[in-house]
Give the backbone structure.
Amino acid sequence: MKQSVIKEMATNELEERLDEEKARLEKMRVNHLVSPLENPKQITFARKIIARILTELRSRELNEA
């Protein structure tokens, strides 16, 4: 997910997407412990998406204040 797509999303959509991405990351980590993922880099990509969403939410929070 690119930053430009994240900036276009509404705040409530971002919060929902954040919950989904965190759940997806947790599921990937558990699956990776049981049997290695085909592409372990997916975990890194998921972490980056979460960081991008959190950054955008924080930016919006600071702009409101």
About this structure: Residues 3-64 form a domain with the Helix Hairpins fold (CATH 1.10.287). Residues 11-34 form the longest helix (24 residues). The chain has one domain: 3-64. The mean pLDDT is 95.
